[in-house]
Each structure stands twice: as structure tokens, then as C-alpha cells.
């Protein structure tokens, strides 16, 4: 069985594949929590591991060592590249492009076989454009919902509420009559506006001949903004399998 890891700034997404496809997975908030979650599934027999990490070199090395020690496997880590699977990195310094963004683009291009817009809606929100030749034209980064909310709560004394209240505030997008609803709906409308702007730019580039991929935890909140978008929560894992193939 293959263990796949997507180590972001806040969480570690994981899943385990057998010859038929994914059999288990989850989201851990720490390396220790990750190992506990995997060990809680005794039916999993890890024989290989591939990983992408945007964490520091020290954090990544420590996690690799922990996985190798616990499961007696080598860990194949993605490294920056100027080109992969027909996609050309568009950054002036290719090593500065986040590896999760890079793999999401590679995954999107693999699935589309042509021009695509990849929108990753997580802690930060990223938009990346890949043309028909696999050339990354560049992209944008803005705060995600959680960052926008946290900034308002940090810098505005009277804005305080929990996650459950935030979720309830998004049942509709009508003008709000409570602060919680006003903040949550306002932030979501900003996010939806960002997505709409990216779609308009893609249309200016390619007309109607392109695909949109939505990934990340908040993808469902904007899916209706792009009628033909494909929501693929694990798009980074699609690119990870391309970058670290196991025959």
C-alpha cells in the first residue's frame, strides 16, 4: 500500500492507496497525530510513501524520519523542478513556487490535456494558469476565508465568534443583520469575486476552450460561481503521483 502525504502549513492531508485506489485517509494537525491516525487503521500495510511538503526543511526532514522509522519505508519527496510531465514552471526562480501549487497545476494539466485554470481554496487561495503547451503563465495569491476572518478578529476588538457560528452564517448571502453574518458573508463574497475575476481572465486568454479545477477545503463554497468547474479535493495527490511514480 502507498501512503501519500500533502504537508501544508496548517495540516497534513494523508491517504493510503492499494491497487484499486484510495482505501483510507484523513487530515492530521501534527506529525504525531498523523502517525496515530494511520496506526489506528490496522488493516493498512504501508510499503511505500511519497510526500509533498511546504514546511521548513527541518520540519520536513523530521517528518520523513518519523515515517521511515515507524513504517520501515523510504519516503520519496517532491523537489522543485523547472519542468514536469509537460508543464513548464513559469516562475522566474522556479524553486520559489510552492510545491503544492506546482503539483496541483501538474495534476490539472494531466486531467485536462490542455489549457486550465487551477484554483486552490485553502488557508491561502491560489490561482494558476497553464496554457495548451503546458506553459505556466503565472498566478495570484490571496488570503483564504480563515485568514480573512482571523485578521478581522485580531484587529477588531468586538468581532469574536466560534467556528460553528461561522458555518451557520453562510446559509445564505443576503445582507446581514448580525456582525457574525456580516463578516462571514462579506469574506465569502470577496472570495467569490476573486474566483470570478480569474475565470474572466482565463476566458480572455482562451475563450471557452479551457477547464477550471477547484481544490482545497473551501472549494465547494465557490463551485456554483464556475458552472463547468471540476471539484477535485485531492488534486495535489494527482500531481504527486505524476512526480513520484511507483511502477
Automatic annotation (TrEMBL):
This protein's pathway: Cofactor biosynthesis; coenzyme A biosynthesis; CoA from (R)-pantothenate: step 1/5
SUPFAM superfamilies in the cross-refs: Actin-like ATPase domain
Entry EC number(s): 2.7.1.33
Residues annotated as binding K(+): 120
UniProt-annotated binding residues for ATP: 6-13, 123
CDD domains to which the protein is assigned, alphabetical: ASKHA_NBD_PanK-III
Catalytic activity, as annotated: (R)-pantothenate + ATP = (R)-4'-phosphopantothenate + ADP + H(+)
Pfam families according to UniProt: Pan_kinase (PF03309)
Active site as annotated: 100 (proton acceptor)
Localization in the cell: Cytoplasm
Task performed by this protein: Catalyzes the phosphorylation of pantothenate (Pan), the first step in CoA biosynthesis.
PANTHER family in the record: TYPE III PANTOTHENATE KINASE
Protein name in the entry: Type III pantothenate kinase
Record organism: Pseudomonas lundensis
Gene responsible for this protein: coaX
Amino acid at each position: 500500500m502507498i501512503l501519500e502525504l500533502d504537508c501544508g502549513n496548517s495540516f497534513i492531508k494523508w491517504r493510503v492507496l492499494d491497487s484499486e485506489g484510495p482505501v483510507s485517509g484523513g487530515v492530521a494537525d501534527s506529525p504525531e497525530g498523523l502517525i496515530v491516525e494511520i496506526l489506528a487503521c490496522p488493516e493498512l500495510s504501508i510499503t511505500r510513501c511519497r510526500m509533498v511538503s511546504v514546511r521548513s526543511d527541518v520540519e520536513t526532514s523530521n517528518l520523513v524520519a518519523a515515517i521511515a522509522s515507524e513504517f520501515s519505508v523510504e519516503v520519496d519527496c517532491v523537489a522543485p523542478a523547472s519542468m514536469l510531465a509537460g508543464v513548464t514552471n513559469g516562475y522566474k526562480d522556479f524553486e520559489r513556487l510552492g510545491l503544492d501549487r506546482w503539483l496541483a497545476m501538474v495534476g490539472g494539466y494531466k486531467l485536462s490535456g490542455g489549457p486550465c485554470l487551477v484554483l486552490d481554496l485553502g488557508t491561502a487561495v491560489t490561482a494558476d494558469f497553464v496554457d495548451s503547451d503546458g506553459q505556466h503563465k503565472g498566478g495570484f495569491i490571496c488570503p483564504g476565508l480563515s485568514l480573512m476572518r482571523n485578521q478581522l478578529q485580531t484587529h477588531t476588538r468586538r468581532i469574536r465568534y466560534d467556528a460553528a457560528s461561522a458555518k451557520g452564517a453562510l446559509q445564505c448571502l443576503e445582507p446581514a443583520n448580525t456582525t457574525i453574518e456580516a463578516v462571514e458573508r462579506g469574506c465569502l463574497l470577496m472570495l467569490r469575486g476573486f474566483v470570478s475575476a480569474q475565470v474572466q481572465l482565463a476566458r480572455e486568454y482562451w475563450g471557452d476552450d479551457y477547464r477550471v479545477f477547484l481544490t482545497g477545503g473551501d472549494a465547494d463554497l465557490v463551485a456554483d460561481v464556475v458552472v463547468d468547474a471540476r471539484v477535485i479535493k485531492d488534486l495535489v495527490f494527482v500531481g504527486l503521483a505524476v512526480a513520484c511514480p511507483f511502477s
